[in-house]
From TrEMBL:
Signal peptide limits: none
The organism's place on the tree of life at top rank: Eukaryota
Lineage summary: Eukaryota, Metazoa, Chordata, Craniata, Vertebrata
Name of this protein: Growth regulating estrogen receptor binding 1
Residue ranges annotated for the GREB1-like circularly permuted SF2 helicase domain, each copy included: 40-722
Compositional bias per record (Polar residues), positions renumbered to this chain: 546-567
Biased composition (Basic and acidic residues): 1-10, 18-29
Residues covered by the GREB1-like C-terminal domain: 1122-1285
Region (Disordered): 1-29, 458-495, 546-597
Domain TET-Associated Glycosyltransferase: 886-1105
Length: 1285
């Protein structure tokens, strides 16, 4: 086509302008208003994600045990979307920016491929079957992974697979998600996500009403509940604008368009209405483009070829980009369901745009679900400039990425498939959609295209105010509208013949088009491609004039312009968006139309028939469309049904549809019927419903993220991670054993000096033990024991496969081990009494064993009466790789739920004997939670005792049982080398590690099973010569910086002990102790000449458990059971005085008093390491500022040399006959040193003073005698203090 002579500022100026559009940053006045909010996660989305998580946890916590979250260590997921390429890319886009994949990848994968998100999203087409089949097989292979199938846009395909042909592409959801393999997989969770859940809420639904999650309202009584400063503007708000009055409604119809279409439909009844309406609509747009380009004059009678509504839409599209320095503009959506008609409309508009030289003014996009989004490079560069994207290969894949791009989007397809639209959407033109949409789902999803999130500052136009329909370039607008105007309708009817004559050229073309379309096309809008390519809506004379990009005759500021469409009535002037109502009113770029309109919902144009239907309310006050059938595949259960109520909540609406709708035979839920049952819900299926475009994708992606983190959190525990203390000075730096020595040598261990120093950080607040040659590093800050727990350092560590678990762990392998499964009968157990005599207690001790039937083979019973005789022990010579020889005793209190008693995984399935040692009053609750565990019940008198009593009874019972087993073996003719060891394990030991000696990086640790640790220690050739063995306590810094590695250590042992009850039979645990009993016991073992050994090549991790335990002491008064604040000074009182008595064991009060008041009791010992307090035959904690020197009075005991050592105090606690006056006279004391003598009563206290001739060197006063603050019936302890003369 030849071009006429170019006018100034026409094509050249426009081309230059378009060149500048590529790089608006070069302009002096670029717009800074642009912002893309794709990656924002709103508070309401977080709330919905947490609701989803709580529902999943509720399924897991239910008694049905349909979901065992404790057995999963990770998640995987697959998001199913409709077969729309834009929806697929849109979901991939959100997934990539959500951070969910970063939570799934392992820590060593620093970078993630850009293609990786595509692996988690699949379009529901024929290729989806292979993907879901692979996921089902993978779920079967990986029972410890929770797989989540997210079915997005779940209302799209609800066809039954049995009623759908393979070529239709329908029925895939039923075929794949409702298969028996998916239903039976215990580690597959299905989440349906939809804006229109009605079709899934029938009498045969597979989703329990308790598993429905509804999007919560963001506002209540005009209060922003989530403080996100946005309001949702959806279908109900659109309908509200039609009833508000005083302003142009956002939802309306075009009477001029309706008149033209109706006239043509009457004249050509054989031509499908969709064809006619599409052709008329495109004629309107083409004529509006020509008119606004200045190519035609008013003599062309524009009102016969276009409408005011279309003129307004096109003018807003063209002027917005010109007003903004960066050429930001609006989107216009044309909804043309027929793909053939949509392709024709796209070609026709592109042709007109090209003829008018407007190719760089706005883009025309064909939205084909089966094709990727395609736009011209010019507009791609423009978007990249706005985004400041430097990637040369970047192209938009979603409609969201077209933010602020001036464009016409022609969206095709039978129904929208979940495509999200940008905030720059200004007009939603639905004038071509079918008027036969009389189903609620179908109608509301079309209207849902206009759903919008409005900034809270700019209220949606329920009241007279700013409307998105006003052209922003108009400072004083006078709106010209032919919308729903009765006078104009009448005039259109009168001038119908004239209108038909004016469209004669068009109809002649339509005739020719109809002739070349097959017969079936007269009743179907899906006309063949190219059938309308030759329809000349514009004559050549109309297309010849050149466009002037600066001249727009149709302007509200010039109402008498040549291009003004003659209408019968003008709307009264309507105020535009004021500065105060605009969210960007303070912007320096007031001329950016996109920035001013981004907070306003789009206008929607409907066919007149649909408009009349949805704007009419029924008797309940709801729009008439809400009473439509939910879906074409659903039928009403009864014609005598109530109407939906306006006051119904989402939950009540769900119950309404569940009661009053039934699926038809072609519905996928029609087969979900079970004889004799009223429901047949899938136990692991959820339904998330929310309005269109509200942010459901972001919500369920965030749910996946927090669920993944929660599972990781469930698989992680807080491990005490404390560095050893008091390590600054080493007495000797000698390598005793080779670093790789597997077992200790007895002769070397005897030469290795015993380390008196306490290195465990949990004892940072106790008295240090005097050791010759050791010098404390610095002064330690005294800390109260109550504060030590709070300040202890922990690390989050993921559980290994060899971890010990509490009662919340339920995996398939553990069901039989735990003996608690609703599918089976709870294991029966019997209570057996066991009595033995102990000289120290002076009476018979009666204990009780609770033995499950499945564990009776570990015990020996009498043939007559079945009385418990002994606990069977293996021979030392026995070797069984699948068995642990050593019985494990775990004393526990207050931790029936949280104690780590499930050792199945820790033992790697090996057979072992594990006994829980519980107090009598806790017997029932421990039996309830651990029905398949053996329990040793302590006597009633030990209900208030400490950990010392538990260890004392375990040790003495084990030695007595050892003697019984030796006797039983001899009587049976077997050798008597019975295994003499037991394990004393803390109830918080969670994992075990072994050290690998690597020459390059030094010693490193890796997780091992408890089975491996114990079997290694049991295999030690000289193990019988050791009285006590143990392993290290784990620390993340324990192996760092060590220049040498000593595999064995001789010193204090804690938490996990291998005790030889035979060799240590003469050294007992102090049954009265509450604190530091293990320190006291180790010191007495060493002083008895027995060898203790720690295996440094193994370490134990201890979990931080804040509930229960033997360190949980409650000090309360006798007057009330409520714990009261009682200071340490009130723990003691003068004998026979009137004092507030405490309901606390006397030994505990004494230990607490000595710990907290040592500065008063031993003033010369404070921070005086060189002059320690002499403690005879026992270790008591006198506080961190006092040093204690332990000495044993037993003959032939091993003690440190005290030559030349002056003591600042003397502590005698229950001194027995081995403590004599001659023994005490071996030691030298400072003048003024303090003596403290402790006895069980006042009589023995005086006898001790006399027997030891203490009055010769110590001065006593009557006021220096004290007792613990206990009543007489609680047997208080007494102590006497004195000063050295």
């Amino acid at each position: 086509m030849s071009s006429p002579k170019k006018e100034p500022n026409s094509k050249d100026s426009q081309t230059q302008s378009s060149k500048d559009e590529v790089s608006p940053k070069e302009s002096k006045h670029s717009c800074s208003e642009y912002s893309a909010e794709w990656r924002e996660v709103r508070p309401i989305q977080l709330a919905v994600a947490r609701k989803l998580l709580s529902h999943v946890c509720a399924i897991a916590d239910s008694s049905t045990q349909n979901l065992d979250l404790g057995s999963f260590d990770r998640i995987s997921f697959l998001i199913l979307v409709p077969p729309s390429e834009v929806t697929f890319q849109q979901t991939v886009f959100h997934l990539r920016n959500s951070g969910v994949l970063q939570d799934l990848v392992s820590s060593d994968q620093e970078c993630m491929s850009k293609l990786e998100p595509e692996q988690y999203v699949v379009k529901m087409d024929r290729k989806a079957q292979a993907r879901i089949d692979n996921l089902t097989q993978e779920a079967h292979r990986n029972p410890y992974t929770l797989y989540i199938l997210v079915h997005d846009h779940a209302h799209w395909d609800i066809s039954s697979s049995s009623c759908s042909s393979p070529d239709s592409g329908l029925g895939l959801v039923d075929l794949l998600l409702n298969s028996q393999q998916v239903k039976d997989a215990a580690n597959i969770l299905i989440l349906h996500v939809t804006s229109f859940p009605f079709a899934l809420q029938t009498q045969c639904t597979r989703v329990s009403p308790y598993n429905e999650i509804h999007w919560p309202p963001a506002f209540s009584n005009d209060v922003d509940l989530y403080h996100e400063r946005t309001r949702y503007f959806g279908v109900s708000e659109l309908l509200e604008t039609t009833r508000s009055g005083g302003c142009l409604p956002l939802l309306r119809y075009d009477s001029s368009f309706e008149s033209m279409s109706s006239a043509l439909e009457e004249r050509f009844p054989k031509l499908h209405s969709a064809v006619i309406r599409t052709m008329v609509l495109i004629q309107h747009y083409c004529m509006a483009l020509v008119a606004l380009s200045g190519r035609i004059s008013s003599s062309h009678n524009l009102h016969k070829h276009t409408s005011v509504e279309t003129m307004e839409i096109v003018q807003a599209l063209l002027t917005a980009a010109q007003q903004c320095p960066s050429h930001h503009g609006h989107m216009v959506l044309l909804r043309i369901p027929s793909l053939a008609l949509a392709e024709w409309a796209h070609r026709r508009l592109c042709r007109v745009r090209k003829q008018l030289d407007m190719e760089n003014c706005f883009e025309i996009i064909l939205g084909n679900p089966s094709q990727t989004l395609t736009i011209r490079q010019h507009f791609t560069n423009q978007i990249k400039t706005w985004l400041k994207d430097q990637d040369c290969d970047w192209v938009p894949h979603t409609y969201l990425e077209l933010e602020a791009l001036p464009c016409i989007l022609i969206l095709s397809g039978a129904e929208p498939l979940g495509e999200s639209l940008p905030r720059s959407l200004k007009y939603c033109d639905l004038r071509v959609i079918s008027c036969s949409y009389l189903h609620r789902t179908t109608l509301e999803q079309e209207l849902g295209l206009a759903a919008y999130l409005v900034k809270a500052e700019s209220r949606p136009p329920h009241k007279p105010g700013p409307g998105s329909d006003v052209i922003e370039s108009d400072p004083e607008p006078e709106k010209l509208s032919s919308t729903d105007n009765e006078e104009e309708e009448a005039q259109a009817q009168e001038n119908g013949e004239t209108l038909l004559q004016s469209t004669q050229p068009v109809l002649s073309c339509q005739k020719s088009a109809a002739e070349c379309v097959p017969a079936q096309s007269t009743t179907s809008p899906n006309v063949q491609k190219g059938a309308f390519d030759t329809l000349p809506f514009l004559s050549k004379a109309q297309a010849q004039p050149q466009l002037s990009s600066q001249s727009f005759p149709y302007s509200p500021t010039a109402p008498q312009s040549q291009a003004q469409a003659p209408v019968s009535h003008q709307m009264p002037p309507k105020s535009t968006s004021s500065d105060s109502s605009s969210p960007r009113a303070s912007s320096p770029h007031q001329n950016c139309s996109w920035a001013r309109g981004v907070g306003r919902p789009p206008s929607v144009l409907l066919p007149r028939a649909l408009y009349d239907i949805i704007t009419v309310s029924d008797s309940s006050g709801l729009p008439r469309c809400t009473s439509f059938l939910p879906h074409i595949y659903v039928a009403w259960a009864s014609s005598f049904r109530p109407l939906l109520s306006k006051m119904m909540t989402c939950t009540e609406q769900s119950l309404y549809y569940r009661q009053w709708t039934v699926p038809q035979s072609n519905h996928m839920d029609s087969s979900n019927r079970t004889e004799g049952r009223s429901d047949n819900f899938h136990p692991r299926r959820l339904l998330l419903s929310g309005p269109p475009q509200v942010g459901k994708t972001g919500a369920y992606l965030h749910f996946l993220g927090i669920l993944s983190r929660m599972l990781i959190r469930l698989m992680e525990v807080d491990i005490y991670d404390e560095e050893d203390i008091n390590n600054s000075v080493q007495a000797e730096c000698v390598q005793f054993h080779p670093p790789n020595a597997p077992w200790p040598k007895m002769d070397i261990m005897k030469r290795m000096p015993f380390d008196y120093i306490i290195h465990d950080a949990k004892y940072d607040d106790i008295s240090s033990i005097y050791c010759p040659g050791y010098k404390p590093v610095a002064e330690r800050n005294p800390l109260r024991q109550e504060d030590v727990y709070l300040r202890r350092r922990t690390s989050r560590i993921k559980l290994s496969k060899y971890a010990a678990y509490n009662t919340y762990h339920h995996c398939e392998q553990c069901h039989q081990y735990l003996g608690f499964n609703p599918r089976y009968q709870i294991y029966e157990s019997t209570l057996h009494a066991f009595t033995f005599t102990h000289l120290l207690l002076g009476e018979d001790i009666q204990l009780y064993f609770i033995i499950p039937k499945s564990k009776e083979h570990y015990f020996s019973f009498s043939q007559q009466g079945g009385q418990l005789e002994s606990m069977r022990l293996p021979l030392a010579s026995e070797q069984n790789p699948d068995c642990i020889k050593t019985p494990i005793f775990t004393p526990t209190t207050g931790r029936h739920e949280h104690g780590l008693f499930n050792l199945y995984h820790a033992m790697d399935g090996a057979s072992h004997l594990h006994i829980l040692v519980v107090k009598e009053y806790e017997m029932a609750v421990y039996k309830k939670y651990w029905p398949n565990h053996i329990m040793l019940v302590l006597p009633t008198i030990f209900n208030g005792a400490g950990i010392g009593a538990a260890h004392f009874l375990i040790k003495e019972l084990s030695y007595h049982n050892l003697e019984l087993e030796r006797t039983r073996r001899l009587e049976g003719g077997s050798p008597a080398d019975v295994w003499p060891f037991i394990i004393l394990a803390d109830d918080s030991c969670v994992m075990w590690n072994a050290v690998d000696l690597d020459a390059r990086s030094g010693p490193v640790e890796h997780a091992v099973s408890l089975k491996q640790v114990l079997q290694h220690m049991e295999a030690c050739p000289e193990l019988a010569h050791y009285s006590l063995c143990g392993i290290r306590k784990w620390s993340s810094r324990g192996l760092k910086g060590s220049t040498r590695w000593e595999p064995f250590f001789r010193g204090h042992l804690y938490d996990f002990l291998l005790l030889n009850v035979d060799r240590s039979q003469n050294v007992q645990y102090d049954q009265n102790r509450f604190t530091c009993h293990d320190v006291d016991f180790t010191l007495r073992l060493h002083s008895a000449g027995l060898i203790v050994c720690r295996f440094n090549n193994f370490s134990v991790m201890k979990k931080q458990i804040t509930i229960g335990g033997y360190k949980t002491f409650i000090i309360k008064t006798k007057m009330t059971d409520v714990p009261t604040s009682v200071g340490p000074s009130q723990y003691i009182c003068a004998p026979d005085s009137k004092h507030l008595f405490l309901a606390t064991p006397a030994q505990l009060l004494l230990e607490k008093y000595l710990q907290h008041t040592s500065q008063k009791l031993f003033p010369l010992s404070i921070k005086n390491y060189a002059n320690p307090v002499l403690s005879v035959d026992c270790y008591l904690n006198l506080g961190p500022e006092v040093t204690v020197c332990f000495m044993s009075s037993r003959p032939h005991s091993v003690n440190i040399s005290t030559s030349g050592l002056l003591f600042s105090g003397l502590l005698l606690c229950f001194a027995d006959a081995f403590v004599t006056s001659g023994f005490l006279k071996k030691f030298t004391f400072l003048k003024g040193a303090t003596l403290c003598v402790i006895s069980a009563d006042r009589s023995s206290l005086r006898q001790t003073v006399g027997r030891l001739e203490l009055e010769e060197e110590w001065r006593f006063r009557l006021s220096d005698e004290f007792q613990t603050a206990n009543a007489k019936e609680d047997r208080p302890l007494f102590f006497l203090t004195g000063k050295h003369i």
